[in-house]
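Notebook entry, structure prediction.
Reason for the run: the old model in the group folder had no record of what sequence produced it. Starting over properly, with the input documented here first.
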Amino acid sequence: MRKLLQIGGLLAGLVAGMATPLLAQRTISDARITYKVEVPQEQLQMEAMFANSSMMQYIRGNQSRIDMNFNVVNYTYLINAQEETVVTLMDNHGDKYLIRTDKKGYEQDTRKYLNTQFTDQAETREIAGYKCRKAIGKMEDGSTFDVYYTLEIIPENKYYNRRFMNLKGIPLEFEIVTKSGSKMKVTATKVDLSPVPASVFDVPRGYREITAEELKKIRG
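New structure, fully documented this time:
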């Protein structure tokens, strides 16, 4: 009988220990996450404009916004998961362009990441004050990238960044594969969970609207 009680106590302790991370989880609807972007040295030698690049992720309900600041060239993506639309803003040396992606284009882009698989690894790390676990993301084309994500904050809108819609938590460090095959590392430096104003998602004036095909020509 005593042994049974001891085993019962041990199991209770294990269950309590397993439950602790779940109690620490927080589902969020609003967030601002500031990231620094580290570019491989060989790419910096070719394109110095990538030095001191940064990224900002905004989340507010079904809306999200991603700002990629490459100093000379800046991109902003305004994503509405409910309406299934994306507005892309590009500021290239002061030349400002706007591209609208409709529901059909949104669905096509989403399918690119629909089968992305994330496999957890043993490594853990604290980033921006949150405990993170490493995972390896594998895309449909076979390419892979590392990501560290936290389970302490869970977004209500899993489509805030479709690249991570199959990830169990929010990524606070991840890799972006460039056209040349090198990888940029994106690491969170600050997480702010205060309410995000609706105005953050307004489409600004002063941009010339063009098509996606015209943007490809501009990008070269």
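Summary: The radius of gyration is 20 Å.
The old model has been moved to the deprecated folder.
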